[in-house]
Input
Amino acid sequence: MQSAPVTKYRPFPPVNLPHRQWPGRTLTHPPIWCSVDLRDGNQALAQPMSVEEKLEYFEMLVKIGFKEIEVGFPSASQIEFDFCRRLIEENRIPDDVAIQILCQCREELITRSIEALRGAKNAIFHLYNSTSPAQRKHVFNATRADIVKIATDGTAWVKKHSAPLVAAGTRMRFEYSPESFCSTELDFALEICEAVTDVWQPTRKDKIILNLPATVEYATPNVHADQIEWMCTHLTRRDRTIVSLHTHNDRGTGIAATELALLAGADRVEGTLFGNGERTGNLDVVTVALNLYTQGVHPGLDFSDINSIREVYERTTRLEVPARAPYAGELTFTAFSGSHQDAIKKSWAAQKPADPWDVLYIPIDPADIGRSYKAIIRINSQSGKGGVAYVLESDFGYSLPKAMHKEIGKIINDVADRKGTELTSDEVHAVFLSEYLERTSPIVLQHFKTTERDSAVKCEATLTLDDETHHLIGTGNGPIDAFVHAIDAIEIPKFEVLSYAEHSLGKGSEARAVSYIQIKTERNLTLYGAGIDTNIELASIKAIVSALNRVLAKK
Output
């Protein structure tokens, strides 16, 4: 970092809005919601969703209650085009849901996008071009007039080429985004939005959507609210305009910026579930919607089963909702502090069903979103994988790999279900030992030794399987690989090693090594084994035996 004074960066200029009204307002109704998970969210994934995953995700968004869903960029790729066509041709879009597509201001791309929408009942054509001074200078080398012409030409092409669809019965709405709005001069943002509106000619019944994106978050949320209020008060056809928000989260204040901008007069919000998006992400729609709910305003979206929504999200995006994320995180309703736990218990006991919710430290009734309160040091059938992993690490020193949390969490929950009461941390530990570290049948490791020759490792192992002794020899690029080749000689399910982790347990001369190894059998059974020994090499071999014994127990 630069030492003070900081000259590398400049403060974002404030908006001259002496009579701003938004600070004194209260949110009393939800905005129009538009999910951009399948476009903006999907393009930000290291591994984009498959078509089948996108279909499942689309159905989930419909079930949640989204009436506007941006489904892709059909002119950008054949996959995006085909997905749009499949939604329409297979009649997967409810009559009251509009699909939205994104397109640049180029005629050949616009005609391709219009082709993708053929046969849709409700569609929103989302057109954009960049408008900020930096974009004009460095990317386009264009004047203001040049940028306005790009936008108005694009709008005219959309109007022209969508006419046959409208004649055939499609309700075609139009959305325009001056990309990088928040870093564009307000007078120019207004000028280009007015020019586009002149071309489109909206009515009070069929309004234009002017989307004002914080493409990169540069300023504090109050500045964004000022920008939105300034635009709302200067648009000449405000009664024919839906002002839309699309905030990103570069400063970590995308949610606050959206809430203040709604106070400033915006009508519509674009975002993604749990905030997935480029860089630090898009707006987290779940959080904004449930923030409204906790203020007595129903958001018009149904998050009453947030766990199943999170499961689909994590499985299809290969992302994880952070443990402390609002409302949906694994540890959202978890208090580590004893004083917090005590206050929660007492205020919860005093809560009457007919009274307004007023439980200390918990701003929403977890039951309203299909969750339950749990203190992390108290493990029962409702405890999550994060809670079990925390107990094993904080009380006993086992730092389990992240992917192992779900596996051990399910085992502990099953035990708690059978017992019908809470499990103490010692009971959790006992289950872990029994399931992983003390499992010694049907395979028992009697002896293991390695020798190195050239670049290879040779192992000699003696083990018993169902009381029959086997003397094995194997060679590999390391002890684990050599043992895997050696054990291949006996009749057990074929398997491969997927992952390996280890750490020390304890300190000094008493320290031992703990190894965790994940294997996958030829029948696609994936599970972990664990081993512990003063010798790290032997700990890993014991972990493989542990995993195989667990496989054979399931068989």
In short: DSSP finds 17 helices and 14 strands in the chain.
